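INTERNAL AUDIT FORM
Audit reference: QA-55
Scope: verify that the stored structure record matches its stored sequence.
Auditor: D.O.
Record contents follow.
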Amino acid sequence: MAFPGFVSRAGAGGADLAIELANDWGLTSYLRTSTLTKHRTIENGFTLFRCASSSSSSSSYSPRGLSGAFSPRGEVLHLQETSTNEDGRIETAAFKFPVKPRIATLYVRAGWLFGWGCIAVCGWILSLVVFYRRLTGIARKIIGLGVL
């Protein structure tokens, strides 16, 4: 789910189910991706099945991967920690989950507008600040001249 462009295309294409294959690298990746996965399902309105393993390195052994299913509303349908044995073999797991119907979301249709809207609002605020400073500068000059 680290590549939102791919996920957005699936949402725009009307997918009911997305499958994510992942390799979690330790606890920080495990926690970050579980949160990110939930947000992507809400944004795009589809059920997501995440199948994850964990990586192990010579310096640290991290036997955690987070596999599960998430509904279009971000509900956790099933969540299971998957692990890798010390000899590098991945344990297998099987479970059933309902594929919920796709939900049409505003993000899929106009999510790209959010970034441009933020830029427009920041530009508007900046122009107000500049205009206000010029206005107060002109008023100070007029007051200094004794006109007002």
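Auditor finding: record pair retrieved intact. DSSP finds four helices and four strands in the chain.
Action required: none
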